[in-house]
Amino acid sequence: MSKPLVEVSQLTKHFRIGRGQLVHAVDSVSVDIEEREIVGLVGESGSGKSTLGKAVIGLHSKTSGSVTFDGELLPQRYTAGDFQKYANRMQMIFQDPYSSLNPRMTVGEIVGEGLRLHTDQSSREIRDATADWLVRVGLNADHMARYPHEFSGGQRQRIGIARALILEPDFVVCDEPISALDVSVQAQVVNLLGELKDSLGLTLLFIAHDLSMVRYVSDRIAVMYLGAVIEIGPADEVFFNPKHPYTQMLIESNPEPDPNHERDRVSTRIQGEIPSPVNIPPGCRFADRCPHVMQSCRMETPKLISVEQQSHARQVACYLYEEEAAEVA
Q1: pTM for the complete prediction?
Q2: Which of these, 292, 301, 298, lies nearest to 268 by C-alpha position?
């Protein structure tokens, strides 16, 4: 069996905020991503999703842990040479289509910049490739001379997609690429990513809030809470049969598309607020908000354990499933 394209092992990222205090943005996260697989990453705001994506791709240095890409251990802290080395294999699509594009550069300069920096193609070849990619993402070749402020949010996100994919990388981190867009435009962008994934053989880490959209686009879903992955498994299994109490509540909070069903539906709200990432409580991080909390939950942090006999890819970090995990083992 071949190794995953991306192997994240015990990855940790802390930020110092003075007086010896640390923000525990990501704590000991391990996840593998197979070649041509889309792994969706979901969780509340502040759960560490974007920080994890940026640490995986090198935009954040790693406090500890490791990331292996195609069998090669990546540096803990990237240098300019490292970015130069990996740019044509790993790219990122950013969340905000307004602030992620340089307003002083034309669209042609923005999209073609990667080719200018990382290839020896001529100016004509770069111009032709840029025009081709603008067409591939649903824009026009004559848009090259325009500036970002002349485009809508959806169009700007398409420019960002073209900029990330013009080097035809193997792995792309999509950091909430649809959260700033209108609902109708979100579907267009997701369908575009799906088409490009199939044509280019891309491997994606897809970060988003919308569980229905993540389920639609992903092969597997990983759920994060307060810097830790607390459940992971095939997308349909996690969505229709969530194991962790937090995942169950996330699914229940997802609105129904039918307004009649939504009006009559009784949903369970997640009580309380997500704890401070500075002062992480002992034990399970969800304990103070969990309706099934036990004494053991407050003593020691539960580890991810396999909970289904047919697949060790179905894992959950919850003491409710210790007996089921023992049967799998």
Answers
A1: 0.89
A2: 292
| pLDDT tens digits, 23-46 | 999 999 999 999 999 999 998 888
Residues 6+ apart with CB under 8 A from 23: 14, 15, 16, 17, 277, 278
H or E segment to which residue 51 belongs? helix 49-57
DSSP bridge pairs for 138: none
Best CA proximity match to 320, nearest among 305, 311, 328, 312: 305
User: Quick one: 80 exposed, middle or buried, by C-beta within 10 A (0-12, 13-18, 19+)?
Assistant: exposed
Q: Which residues, at least 6 apart from 17, have a Cβ–Cβ distance to it below 8 Å?
A: 23, 278
Is residue 204 within 8 Å of 172, Cβ to Cβ? yes
Residue 27 half-sphere exposure toward CB, CA atoms < 13 A: 21
Q: Which of 275, 221, 213 is nearest to 23 (CA)?
A: 275
What does each C-alpha distance from 99 to 60, 61, 149, 165, 239 come to in angstroms? 18, 22, 10, 19, 32
